[in-house]
């Protein structure tokens, strides 16, 4: 990075000084509040502010001899952190995944780039360990309020390498042979190649009869033009040509997009700003060891680094009073008032071009605008200039926007619990003292009780001790018990009321973290309803967080595409436990991304226990469509996980794993000719007609064929793709045969004729021949 001149450095220093002088007193008050919240989070609740040290001091019994006994009763319970951790846990169940949309839905390049953008988002999630980054962002949100995400590309050899072809341009002299009649070009060669060919033809040893005639024509310079079919003496011209040649390959390191989240203690923006666009500058400060700083910045290597070390070891400090104030606030609470050695403050400024108007001279403003048209990123180590470059503030930083605040800065959520923590500390200390001092003290008359003899006697239950009452008095009259304190009956109800107020103020209701709900029943539906109401309170914060997250990745995905120099590969695990390679091709990102949205809706994601409850309710339902979804082979692994029984065997799970293993084998081979005209090709992996679960394995083949991995394999490995199709076709044929056999068996059972009833014997009546027979019948 080129170091600007001394005059430019002075101009930049004048602008940054104007930025530092803004909101000095306001920032001191903000930093004081943020620092106190950090101390309360760490459990340092017994703190007091020192105007001399300009910092919160942790109360220590050794510093106050008169009240040294008070530390015995101070047993604070960190309810401040407990409530805030419940809120953080509810908002960090899952990270909302991103979804990229094409700029033009009819443009194939934009569609391919949008699909690649989804993969880029998943890859950036893995590179930055986003679950922990999201947790840290929530920690900043509850203790400092405003959140600022710093996104930047970083090159490192640990991220991988790629090969780059090296080319060089050389100037060569070419010889062109052309026909003088029609201008047809016979050949174009370099001068050296033409001379070499000519010498080879002329010096040919023992030519044949036909070759003698050809050699004579060549030696005489006569050639046959294939265009005009005439024997001509070709014209030979020479000219110089610039030729690009491949000279070798170089190894370059890959870059990644890094994400870092900071709060108000590290990031300073003007308090009058309503949105990020209203910030003419942004200042980022952090402490680091001077050896790391001297190695990182080229401008500080050598003599400047030695001077920097000399200032540190001598105890000098170049920073102003408010910078020193910020340094103390950013220290770890574990220092407890001390300051680390060999540490310097790295101050980085991002200035918009409008910030150059701080300068009075128009020529100076024009000079900086010409050098840094997009804005400037300038770095100082204490007051020592480090580097400066042309960089836009909006390209690197994304500041959160709270719709429930008029300005970018707003009070953190933890501010609502400061008074609750202080009241809880006082109640606990008062209760402990009251209980201890409530143990009564007994006074006795030494004439009645011999203290020396009593001290020498072992106290046993039901023991008998000799006493001598005074004349005319009872033994009890010689003893008197005094109670110095009694706990008020209003203390415990007041403590419960304070905790109820804490839940109301913060939104961390008991149902949010599994506590008992007052005034409600013990049924699961009532608890679920109470939890839903508790999460509804956090819905506003969730919307603000997801909106900020969407803005971050609307910058990160295009930044990744810009920095991408080679194809990227990411190994992912599918729901069934198999591993697949997901590629991000360089050729897929030539389009344009229109916008970035979140796949998740505005509702807070459900926890594992909530999802398990929903699954159990679905399994108990009698809806055939729901049961069909649950019985799908793809969902068996999910059901197995949410049941929580890791040793439970799920039927069909081995069949799924077996089929995915066979797909891997099919992709590494190609179909085999069978010679059968009805099915000329067979898969390289056969099926087992008797033992395979054809229904499950065919469904897995069908799912893979229509999946993204299958569609990508179709374009890259057509033979393997066809191999999987043929394998699935065999499973389908077996499945159809089984169904036909089953149908035939059912038809045979239904169509079998029942046993026939025996025919009735036919009786033949005798003919009437006589009159007496007729009379008998009548």
The biggest beta sheet is recorded as: 5 strands, antiparallel
Count of strand segments: 23
Q: What is the SS-derived class?
A: alpha+beta
Low-confidence stretches: 312-322, 766-778
What is the helix tally? 25
Share in β-strands: 15-25%
Strand order of the largest sheet: 11-12-13-14-15
What is the end-to-end distance? 137 Å
Helix content: 40-55%
Radius of gyration: 44 Å
Q: Which overall shape is indicated by the principal axes computed on the Cα atoms?
A: flat
Kindly report the average pLDDT value. Answer: 78
Which short descriptors sum up this protein?
43% helix, 23 strands, 778 residues, disordered C terminus, 25 helices, 5-stranded antiparallel sheet, 3-stranded antiparallel sheet, alpha+beta
Description:
The strands form 9 sheets. Strands 11-12-13-14-15 form a 5-stranded antiparallel sheet, with helices on both faces. Among the domains are: 1-22 and 270-411, no CATH class; 162-206 and 214-253, no CATH class; 441-482, no CATH class; 608-744, no CATH class. It is α+β, with helices and mostly antiparallel strands and 778 residues long. β14 and β15 form a beta hairpin. The longest helix is centred in the C-terminal third of the chain and has 34 residues, at 718-751. The termini are far apart. α4 (108-127) crosses α17, α22 packs antiparallel against α24 and α23 crosses α24 (718-751). It is flat.
Question: What would a concise description of this structure say?
Answer:
By secondary structure, this protein is of the alpha+beta class. Among the domains are: 1-22 and 270-411, no CATH class; 162-206 and 214-253, no CATH class; 441-482, no CATH class; 608-744, no CATH class.
């Amino acid at each position: 990075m080129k170091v600007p001149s001394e005059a430019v450095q002075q101009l930049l220093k004048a602008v940054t000084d104007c930025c530092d002088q803004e909101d000095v007193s306001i920032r001191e008050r903000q930093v004081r509040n943020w620092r106190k919240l950090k101390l309360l989070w760490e459990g340092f609740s017994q703190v007091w502010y020192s105007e001399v040290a300009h910092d919160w001091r942790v109360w220590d019994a050794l510093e106050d001899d008169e009240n040294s006994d008070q530390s015995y009763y101070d047993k604070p319970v960190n309810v401040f952190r407990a409530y805030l951790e419940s809120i953080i846990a509810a908002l960090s169940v899952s990270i909302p995944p991103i979804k990229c949309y094409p700029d033009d839905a009819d443009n194939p390049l934009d569609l391919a780039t949008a699909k690649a953008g989804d993969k880029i988002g998943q890859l950036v999630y893995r590179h930055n360990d986003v679950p922990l980054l999201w947790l840290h962002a929530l920690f900043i949100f509850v203790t400092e309020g405003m959140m600022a995400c710093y996104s930047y590309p970083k090159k490192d050899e640990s991220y991988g390498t790629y090969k780059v072809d090296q080319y060089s341009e050389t100037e060569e002299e070419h010889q062109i042979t052309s026909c003088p009649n029609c201008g047809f070009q016979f050949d174009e060669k370099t001068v050296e190649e033409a001379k070499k060919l000519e010498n080879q033809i002329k010096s040919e040893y023992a030519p044949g009869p036909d070759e003698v005639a050809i050699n004579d024509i060549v030696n005489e310079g006569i050639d046959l033009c294939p265009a005009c079919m005439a024997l001509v003496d070709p014209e030979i011209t020479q000219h110089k040509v610039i030729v690009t040649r491949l000279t070798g390959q170089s190894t370059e390191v890959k870059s990644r997009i890094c994400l870092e989240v900071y709060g108000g203690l590290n990031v300073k923006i003007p308090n009058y700003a309503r949105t990020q666009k209203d910030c003419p500058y942004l200042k980022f400060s952090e402490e680091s060891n001077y050896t790391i700083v001297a190695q990182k910045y080229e401008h500080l290597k050598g003599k400047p680094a030695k001077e920097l070390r000399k200032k540190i070891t001598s105890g000098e400090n170049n920073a102003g009073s408010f910078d020193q104030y910020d340094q103390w606030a950013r220290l770890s609470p574990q220092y407890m008032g001390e300051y680390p050695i060999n540490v310097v403050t790295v101050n980085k400024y991002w200035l918009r071009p409008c910030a150059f108007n701080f300068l009075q001279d128009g020529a100076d403003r024009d000079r900086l605008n010409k050098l840094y048209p997009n804005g400037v990123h300038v770095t100082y180590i204490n007051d020592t200039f480090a580097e400066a470059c042309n960089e836009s503030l909006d390209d690197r930083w994304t500041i959160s926007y709270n719709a429930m605040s008029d300005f970018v800065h707003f009070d953190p959520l933890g501010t609502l619990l400061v008074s609750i923590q202080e009241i809880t500390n006082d109640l606990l200390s008062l209760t402990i003292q009251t209980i201890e001092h409530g143990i009564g003290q007994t006074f006795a008359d030494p004439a009645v009780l011999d203290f020396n003899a009593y001290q020498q006697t072992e106290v046993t239950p039901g023991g008998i001790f000799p006493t001598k009452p005074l004349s005319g008095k009872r033994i009890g009259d010689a003893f008197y018990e005094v109670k110095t304190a009694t706990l008020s009956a209003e203390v415990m109800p007041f403590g419960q009321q304070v905790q109820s107020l804490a839940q109301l103020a913060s939104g961390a209701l008991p149902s949010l973290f599994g506590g008992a709900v007052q005034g409600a029943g013990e049924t699961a539906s009532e608890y679920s309803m109470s939890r839903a109401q508790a999460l509804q309170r956090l819905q506003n914060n969730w919307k603000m967080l997801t909106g900020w997250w969407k803005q971050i990745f609307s910058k990160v995905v295009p930044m990744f595409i810009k920095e991408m120099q080679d194809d990227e590969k990411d190994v992912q695990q599918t729901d069934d436990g198999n591993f697949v390679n997901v590629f991000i091709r360089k050729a897929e990102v030539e389009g344009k991304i229109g916008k970035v949205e979140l796949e998740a809706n505005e509702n807070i994601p459900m926890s594992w226990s909530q999802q398990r409850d929903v699954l159990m309710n679905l399994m108990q339902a009698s809806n055939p469509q729901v049961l069909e979804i649950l019985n799908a082979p793809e969902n068996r692994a999910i059901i197995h996980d949410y049941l929580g029984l890791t040793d439970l065997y799920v039927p069909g799970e081995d069949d799924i794993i077996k089929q995915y293993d066979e797909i891997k084998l099919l992709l590494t081979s190609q179909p085999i000719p069978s010679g059968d005209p009805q099915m000329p090709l067979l898969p390289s992996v056969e099926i087992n007609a008797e033992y395979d679960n054809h229904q499950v394995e065919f469904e897995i083949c069908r799912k893979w064929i229509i999946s993204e991995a299958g569609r990508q394999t179709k374009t890259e490995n057509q033979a393997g793709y066809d191999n999987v199709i043929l394998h699935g076709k065999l499973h389908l044929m077996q499945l159809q045969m089984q169904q036909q056999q089953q149908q035939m068996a059912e038809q045979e059972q239904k169509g079998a004729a029942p046993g026939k009833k025996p025919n009735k014997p036919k009786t033949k009546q005798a003919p009437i021949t006589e009159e007496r027979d007729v009379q008998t019948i009548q």
